[in-house]
Write a structure and sequence with these properties.
- It contains 6 helices and 9 strands, in the order E-E-H-H-H-E-E-H-E-H-E-E-H-E-E.
- It has 2 domains: 112 residues, no CATH class; 72 residues, Alpha-Beta Plaits.
Length: 205
């Protein structure tokens, strides 16, 4: 086919990670692609928009580096199955160029299964975790100071910590499963490290 003269994709995340953990995984990619024909440019734009949306929508809930690598190496046909719905606005095209704002919603269950099958660490819940709790283990360098920080981060995000055991500088507690992802994101943004081991979330500084 022809040579791509210009290609631009800008992703803008539209979901809010905090309290809307069961909210749709929706994002918008602004695309502007030039190729040998408008039809080719549109096909390429849809593929790249899909990849950008999946990265943007899932990054708050997964290891972003591994996610980007998996999306980059995945076939377009497979990624198409992760999209629940899509819409296009501001569409413009000429004989060789296609541009638009493409909004897509990622299917939560399909995405979770795909992340797991590709070995991408994630904490994407199924959106139906009401009444369930998740275990969290925190390793503390400075017991009092670090624990105070963890509790403050949780409180600032409206998350109750149900402390179960204290063993030296390691604390084990439970959180509502529907809030585990929000807690992980908040701790990550505060500089904490995380790892999922068989469903148990391990946090360390």
């Amino acid at each position: 086919m022809g040579t791509i003269i210009r290609f631009l994709v800008f992703g803008a995340v539209m979901l809010v990670a905090g309290g809307a953990f069961g909210a749709p995984l929706t994002a918008t990619a602004h695309v502007n692609v030039t190729s040998d024909t408008a039809a080719t440019a549109k096909n390429m734009a849809m593929d790249e928009a899909r990849r950008q949306v999946i990265v943007d929508a899932l990054s708050p809930y997964a290891d972003s580096t591994a996610l980007r690598a998996a999306v980059k190496n995945e076939k377009s046909a497979v990624l198409t199955t992760l999209i629940e719905s899509s819409g296009i606005s501001g569409e413009k095209q000429s004989d060789t160029t296609y541009s638009a704002n493409i909004t897509m919603t990622v299917d939560r269950n399909a995405a979770r299964n795909w992340l797991v099958s590709n070995g991408v660490q994630n904490w994407l819940g199924d959106g139906d975790d009401a009444g369930h709790e998740s275990w969290v283990v925190v390793s503390l360098n400075n017991k009092l100071t670090d624990w105070s920080r963890v509790r403050r981060i949780a409180a600032d995000n409206g998350i109750d910590l149900n402390t179960k055991t204290i063993d030296g500088n390691q604390m084990t507690f439970r959180v509502p499963a529907a809030r585990r992802g929000a807690l992980t994101i908040a701790l990550r943004d505060a500089g904490w490290h995380y790892q999922d081991r068989d469903g148990v979330l391990y946090i360390s500084k």
